[in-house]
């Protein structure tokens, strides 16, 4: 059962301007693991990565319904790519299933995050599927 959906859209050039004005912005919004992943990119891909993570964290806070602040901070959330390149969001203390989609087009990045409470059957089925993939 879906218990939260959040979306966000950001201008990549606006994020670039913030990075130029506030050098500590990057360490404010990204975890050390995300910063390491960002630093493996350059130019347009670097900016898309940073804007995408910012947007995804905003979308998660909207799905949670709290915004970023007391309930969840920037560093509570980490979005890294799996082996296939798909973004995966993890949030400290979050026990529900999370999904994130990040897309770029021109100067914009758009994200959607869902928070889903899995039934007992869904949890069992997921565990079985993960075992079959190994």
Automatic annotation (TrEMBL):
Ligand binding (Mg(2+)): 8, 58
| Entries under NCBIfam families matching the protein | acpS (TIGR00516), pantethn_trn (TIGR00556)
Specify where it is mainly localized: cytoplasm
A GO molecular function annotation here is: holo-[acyl-carrier-protein] synthase activity
Q: Which residues form the 4'-phosphopantetheinyl transferase domain?
A: 4-112
Gene encoding the protein: acpS
Q: What does this protein do?
A: Transfers the 4'-phosphopantetheine moiety from coenzyme A to a Ser of acyl-carrier-protein.
Coiled-coil ranges per the record? none
User: Reaction(s) catalyzed by this protein?
Assistant: apo-[ACP] + CoA = holo-[ACP] + adenosine 3',5'-bisphosphate + H(+)
Where can this protein be found?
Answer: Cytoplasm
State the needed cofactors, names only. Mg(2+)
Protein name, UniProt field:
Holo-[acyl-carrier-protein] synthase
């Amino acid at each position: 059962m879906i218990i939260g959906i959040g979306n966000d859209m950001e201008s990549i050039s606006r994020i670039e301007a913030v990075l130029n004005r506030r050098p500590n912005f990057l360490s404010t919004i990204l975890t050390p693991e995300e910063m390491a992943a960002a630093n493996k990119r350059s130019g347009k891909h670097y900016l898309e990565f940073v804007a995408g993570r910012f947007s995804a964290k905003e979308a998660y806070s909207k799905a949670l319904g709290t915004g970023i602040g007391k309930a969840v901070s920037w560093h509570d959330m980490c979005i890294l790519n799996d082996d296939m390149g798909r973004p995966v969001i993890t949030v400290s203390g979050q026990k529900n299933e999370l999904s994130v989609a990040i897309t770029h087009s021109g100067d914009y990045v758009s994200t959607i995050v869902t928070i889903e409470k899995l039934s007992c059957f869904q949890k069992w089925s997921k565990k079985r599927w993960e075992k079959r993939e190994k």
